[in-house]
Amino acid sequence: MNSPIFGIHYLIDGFGLIAKPGLRRFVIIPLLINIVLFIGLFFLLRYFVNEFNVWFSSFLPAWLHWLSAILWIVFFTSFFIIIIYTFVIVANLIAAPFNSFLAEKVELYLTGNIPEERSLLDNIKDIPRIMGRQIAIIGYYIPRALLIFILFFIPIVQAVAAVISFLFHAWFMTLTYIDYPTDNHRIPMRDVREWLNQRRSVSLGFGVGVLVCSMIPLVNCFTIPAAVAGATKFWINEADQVAN
Using the 8-state DSSP alphabet, how is residue 114 labeled? Predict the structure, then answer.
């Protein structure tokens, strides 16, 4: 069972799970929040670019006014690229509380059980802790990512730096999303990492699938909830093997 294929299969299952009745709202609400956020950011930046364009054009002779059109092309192209590469990062932070609820509902859907009985008020009170754990994961990521970045500047080692970077980011994707179901059970992060290390091939397969889907426009809009659902199923299937 410890094969990368099973990890990819969990992600595929995740895409199927988020389409189930009762689970869709945990996908749609954070997605709408992200869409509104990026639309608002677009119009805000467009306003400042327009103001700059008017100011800049006032210094140009008539025969160079075509440069203002170039500025708009650069703006639209840059904004599109920013969306592609930052959507998942921003969406992860915004969707963190929803992802915790989604993991709980997926577990209920698959097993008929939930980690613990909590009221809506309890869930709302838990949001700062959930956000804090996600920030802690980012804190785990940054120094290791910087170390890998340095490898790209070391002769000979730089030849394998790209492979190391890809595998690390795949591992990090799995750690990020497995955190939601395990956090619902209050499993310490250290135990989660040990649990994943015991299932390294499946974990890497799952992370590679998430990485690839995150790079595909439109698909990446649904990758986060699918990864949460898939990671929850991954957890459930082997939860009895978690070290206490």
Answer: -
Q: What is the pLDDT of residues 94-132, one digit of tens each?
A: 677 788 888 888 998 888 877 666 655 666 676 777 777
Phi, psi of 3 (to 5 degrees): -135, 145
* Token digits of residue 19: 């389409």
Q: Report the C-alpha gap between 174 and 165 in whole angstroms.
A: 14
Distances (CA, A) of 103 to 54, 60, 180, 233: 49, 56, 6, 9
**pTM to 2 decimal places:** 0.74
Residue pointed to by tokens 């009762």:
22
Instruction: Name the DSSP letter for residue 64.
Output: G
Classify residue 199 as exposed, middle or buried by CB count within 10 Å of its CB (0-12, 13-18, 19+): buried
Residue type, 113: N
Closest C-alpha among 198, 192, 22 to residue 107: 22
CB-CB neighbours of 227 under 10 Å: 31
